[in-house]
Amino acid sequence: MEIVGRSHFTPPPPKFVNKLLSFISIKSTMNISKIRNIGIMAHIDAGKTTTTERMLYYSGYTRALGDVDDGDTVTDFMAQERERGITIQSAAVTFDWKSHRINLIDTPGHVDFTVEVERALRVLDGAVAVFDASAGVEAQTLTVWRQADKHHVPRVCFLNKMDNLGLSIESIRAKLKANPVLLQVPVGSGKNFTGLVDLLTKQKMTWKLNSTDDGRVFETKALSQADNPELLQEVREARTALIEQIADLDDEFAELLLTDFGDNFDAVPSSKLQEAVRRVTLARKGVPVLCGSSLKNKGVQPLIDAITDYLPAPNERHHDLDDLCALAFKVLHDKQRGPLVFLRIYSGTMKPQTAVYNINRDNTERMSRLLLPFADQHVEIPSLTAGNIALTVGLKQTVTGDTIVSSKSSAAAAARRAQSDRGKGKTRGEQANLVLSGVEVPDPVFFCSIEPPTLAKQADLENALNCLQREDPSLKVRVDPDSGQTILCGMGELHIEIIHDRIRREFGIETHLGPLQVAYRETVLQHASATDTLDRTIGERRHIVTVELAVSPVEDSSSMGSSCDFAFEEEVEEQLSPEVKDAVENGLQSSYLQGPLLGYPVQGVSTLIQNVSMEPGTSPAMVSACVSRCMLKAMRQAGGQVLEPVMSLEVTVGEAHLSSVLGDLSQRRGAVKDIQSRHDNKVLLATVPLAEMMGYSTILRTLTSGNATFSLELDTYEAMNSQDQSALLKRVAGLCL
Question: Does 408 count as an annotated binding residue?
Answer without folding.
Answer: no
